[in-house]
Amino acid sequence: MGVMPYHVRLAELFLLQKQRQLTDAEVLDLTHCMAANAKYCWDLVTLHNFSYAAYAAGDMAWLHEICAQIDALEERQTKIKRPDRRGTDRK
């Protein structure tokens, strides 16, 4: 699993709160990051549990479908959005 943007922000906020009290905006940001992390973890664990059930049942078609969903979930989380540079430096 790659580093997700909210994981980076969580780390930043964790380090900041060790140095000083977080602002109200930072506390809200922390809450949003923790919610995104919880949803991602819940979705991933759920899919892993389904994959175990599919494997135990011997349903390889279902297992492959679930593994594809896991791959898609992880891919969405690790995709880096690159800025659109059209028109900025080039003419």
What would you say this structure looks like, in words?
By secondary structure, this protein is mostly helical. Helices cover 75% and strands 0% of the residues. It has one domain (5-77). The N and C termini lie far apart (39 Å). Mean pLDDT is 85; it is low at 87-91.
Concise overview:
The chain is mainly alpha-helical.
List the helices and strands and how they pair.
Elements: H1 5-19, H2 24-57, H3 60-78
Helix pairs in contact: 1-2, 2-3
User: How would you sum up the global shape?
Assistant: elongated
Q: How many extended strands? A: 0
The succession of helices and strands, N to C, reads HHH
Proportion of helical residues? over 70%
Number of helices: 3
- How would you classify the helix and strand content by structural class? mainly alpha
Which consecutive residue ranges, at least 5 long each, have pLDDT under 50?
87-91
The proportion of strand residues reads under 5%
Distance between the termini: 39 Å
Give the overall average pLDDT.
Answer: 85
The biggest beta sheet reads: none
Q: Compute the CA-based radius of gyration.
A: 19 Å
Tally of discrete structural domains: 1
